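note to self — DONT lose this again. spent like an hour looking for the file last time. sequence + predicted structure for the chain T wanted, 381 res
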Amino acid sequence: MKKLRVAVIGAGMGGLATAAALQRSGIEAHVYEQAAKFTRLGAGIQIGCNAIKVMREFGLEPVLRNECFYPRSWNNKEFDTGEVRFDMEFGALAEERYGAPYLLGHRGDLHAALASAVNPATINLGHKLVGFEQMTDGAVQLTFDGQSPVTYDAVVAADGVHSLVKKTLFGHDEPNFTGRIAYRTVFPASLLNGYEIDDCTKWWGPDRHIVIYYVKPDRSEVYFVTSQPDPGFTVESWSAMGDVKELRAAFEGFHPQVGRVLEACPSVHKWALVDRDPLPRWSDGNVTLLGDACHPMTPYMAQGAAMAIEDAAVLSRCLDGVDRDGVAQAFQRFEATRKPRTSRVQLSSRTNTWLKDPSNPDWVYEYDAWNVPLAAATEVV
């Protein structure tokens, strides 16, 4: 059987994880990314035990342990008194319970690790997708701005919330602006002048919260992300800058630890928090969506990237041993396997109640994308 050739659109977390998983299974996968180069964007990321299990198969666990912070817990506290609402312990307890560590890192470091698991010759930067066409023989022709068309047996669109592929296949959908905004930044811990913060804490206020944690094993970098009302702001961009003074004013009255962190931070980014409903369909023929392109979610469970990374492992299993004629059914099987879980996480995250009070998170962290049962052929429609 001729080796399957797959084009992956987008070199974010989901796209790189998909390429790594497909290449690991012997499939020829090529990544196309519109950016001209990779940059270390200033944001933290929580890497759940469920995501680590996927990346362990790429040989990345030692790298991530070396680059990331290993927290004792995810502690949920009252915004002003610091009273503990729920202390979700991680560390060695999580490793024993879920079979993998829970790590806190910098998005740039996680991205670099995933990129290292992909054959560099197969990563094509500076390629902006402008259109595609499914041919009568099942092949898919891709057109990139200023480039000659290329043809593949299958296409995986990991091109994010503004996915051109999603818009082309299923039409444009307006995001549901939540009326809330988030500020975020990473800055050197040295700016705290020796002041120690908790490993990872979410400070719960009446109508707003802030999550603060270290992102390096030596505690040299601090990250925070907020959520608060701001109905008039509708910029859905991770690069828009915010006003530090406005941010500090928005969290007056919070615990002194929060005040010290906000006083030390030199600059922040600001973006509107949006929500989208689960899509009715993810694929059409030999083209499928993956990650944020088909199940974007609010950040309140810290599982957006993890869901895309899980997608990658399950998709590679569905495509294993498949030829071009079997791709469409493999994509349907992928959707049937993944949609119940991603929809549950998507809708659970929407409520912003995750770990606010004592709860059992096993259903999130014990998931193993390499071994979860795939949907039976009879479940594929």
